[in-house]
Every structure is written in structure tokens, then in C-alpha cells.
Design a protein that fits this description.
Layout lengths: L10 H10 L5 H6 L2 E7 L3 E7 L3 E7 L3 H4 L4 H9 L5 E3 L3 E3 L2 E3 L1 E6 L8 H9 L1 H18 L7 E6 L2 E7 L5 E8 L3 H16 L11 E5 L17 E8 L1 H4 L4 H44 L19
Antiparallel strand pairs: 1-2, 2-3, 3-7, 4-7, 5-6, 8-9, 9-10, 10-12, 11-12
């Protein structure tokens, strides 16, 4: 069966932008101001504020201050400066929530054929931020340096670790928590498939994937997440994955993998429940058809032959 790839752009943010972007949407903007709080995966939260001329996205992310130093501002400015999007790294209090940074775009700007791409890029801001520590790490390795192990604590109780491996390899390790044992049983089936995928001749260039209930040896000197419900998933990226045009897609896939895995675990459980309910309904139908009618009319007569019914 085909696996579903989750979108990296937030649909609510993108829809709000598409509705307001460009000179043609001026009338809509005049009559539809916006103040809206949006929640995302990975403990992220946004506050969208739009007037007739500007649209600001305030962003709050889990443990932002712990990985902000890895080139987040630099990447945001490189990504959005070409579209005249203002980046502010100042913390702000909106709707009783502290936000880490914000992006502001002039809605009257005509981006022409790039309009949808600009909206999509803004709606993907969380992944842009989380990818910054990766690209910063890649630059060190490209310069012949070994930055050691880098931790990205992007979720409560879960982290991503990056470490230089042998030769031109970079190892990405994620700690993933499963709150239910049944979820892990299903996830293990998926993970075994990913581990075996490189046996296919057409997929020899894919990153090497592995998983373990124990922290990988590369993290032996670090304080990491441990417990019966914690699993470590590792990907070995080769130079062709992290150096060049494929780097952005590789990072995006790694960042999405945790949510991708949990999504398919939940979808599998839903599918199995549906199949079980359907099987029960079918069995009950069979049993009902097999029952003799207890209420079937039995004609009772007297000795003289007169019916009592």
C-alpha cells in the first residue's frame, strides 16, 4: 500500500496567506482583519495577525533558545530577504503567550507566479528553523571540522542528535517516544521495512536506517532520553545527501520522520479497528440468519379441532 507523505507547510497559515496576498485581494483584506492562534506538531504555536497591508506570523517553538545559536537567524534572513519579508528575532508577548520571533510580509506586494511559493515558504517556517542546526553542522563538516555531537531538543522528552560518522558520513539519531506498547508493536513493523529497504537494487542510494531500544553507541558519553517507551531511530547520510541540491530534501525528510511514523501507526490502528468492526458485523449477520425464529407462530388446536390462535 502507498504511504502518505505529510505536508511540511501548515495548511491554516497557507490558506490565510493565499486569501490575502497580492493587489487583487485588497478588498478582502479591508473587510477581513485577522487575529488567530494556531497550534502545530512538535509543541509549536503561531499567532497570525493581519491588517489591510501587513501579515505577521509570531512563532513559539519548544526549547528555541537551545538551538537558536546554530544559525537560525542567518537562515531565516537568507530564506526570506529575497521576498522582502522582515525577520525579527525579538521576543514578544501576544495573547498571553511569549513568542520567540516573527515574520512580517507586505500583503500588497505582487509576487506574480511566485505567489503560491512565497505563501508555502512562510507556512513552512517551523521546518526552516529546525533545519538551521543541520545546515550549520554541514558547513563545519564541509570545512573539514568535526563539531562533535549536536543535540536539538525540539520536543518535550524527544531530541534529534547529529554526529559526524566515518569519512563523509553524517549520522542523524532521533529519540522517539511511544506512549502505548501497541503503538510500538506496529511501529516496529514499519521500521524493519525501512531497515531492509536498501536490499532493493533501485534503492541502494537511500540513507542507511536502523533502530534500537537502547541509545546508539555514538551517544554513550551524553545524557539522553531513556526508558521502556523510548526508541532510537538512526539515519546515516552520505555526502550526496547532505552536500548539494539534495540537502534540503534530506533534512526535511529526517525532520518529518517522527510525525510520519506516528501518523501511520495511528492510521494502521484505525484501519484494523474498522476491519474488526466490519468482521463482527458480518459475523452477527450470519448468526442472525442462522437463528430459528422463536416467535414463529405455532397453531394450537383443541381436541375438537378448533384453533386457539
Amino acid at each position: 500500500a502507498m504511504m502518505i507523505l505529510l505536508e511540511t507547510s501548515h495548511p491554516t497559515i497557507k490558506q490565510a496567506l493565499v486569501q490575502r496576498m497580492g493587489p487583487a485581494r485588497e478588498e478582502f483584506r479591508e473587510s477581513n482583519s485577522l487575529e488567530h492562534v494556531v497550534i502545530d506538531f512538535d509543541d509549536a504555536q503561531y499567532y497570525l495577525k493581519a491588517s489591510s497591508q501587513t501579515f505577521t506570523i509570531y512563532c513559539a517553538m519548544h526549547n528555541f533558545d537551545k538551538y537558536e545559536k546554530f544559525g537560525v537567524q542567518k537562515l531565516l534572513e537568507e530564506k526570506y530577504a529575497k521576498h522582502d519579508i522582515a525577520v525579527s528575532m525579538s521576543k514578544s508577548l501576544e495573547q498571553d503567550t511569549s513568542f520567540d520571533f516573527n515574520l512580517t510580509i507586505n500583503l500588497s506586494t505582487d509576487y506574480g507566479s511566485e505567489n503560491d511559493a512565497v505563501c508555502d515558504s512562510l507556512a513552512r517556517v517551523k521546518y526552516t528553523v529546525l533545519s538551521a542546526p543541520f545546515f550549520d553542522y554541514f558547513e563545519f563538516v564541509q570545512a573539514g571540522q568535526d563539531p562533535g555531537v549536536r543535540r536539538i531538543p525540539y520536543r518535550a522528552g524527544e531530541s534529534i542528535y547529529i554526529k559526524k560518522g566515518k569519512e563523509d558520513q553524517i549520522i542523524v539519531m532521533s529519540s522517539v517516544t511511544f506512549d502505548e506498547k501497541k503503538d510500538w508493536s506496529i511501529a516496529e513493523v514499519f521500521l524493519r521495512e525501512f531497515s531492509d529497504v536498501r536490499r532493493e537494487p533501485s534503492l541502494q542510494n537511500a540513507p542507511v536506517a536502523s533502530f534500537s531500544r537502547n541509545p546508539p553507541g555514538e551517544l554513550e558519553d551524553m545524557k539522553v532520553e531513556e526508558g521502556e517507551n523510548v526508541v532510537y531511530i538512526s539515519f546515516v547520510l552520505f555526502k550526496k545527501h547532505w552536500d548539494g541540491p539534495k540537502a534540503e530534501n534530506s533534512v526535511r525528510a529526517v525532520l518529518m520522520f517522527r510525525n510520519y511514523l506516528h501518523y501511520h501507526v495511528k492510521a494502521s490502528k484505525t484501519f484494523m479497528h474498522m476491519r474488526m468492526r466490519k468482521a463482527v458485523d458480518s459475523l452477527m449477520g450470519t448468526l442472525n440468519r442462522a437463528k430459528t425464529s422463536a416467535e414463529a407462530a405455532v397453531e394450537k388446536k383443541t381436541w375438537s379441532g378448533k384453533s386457539l390462535n
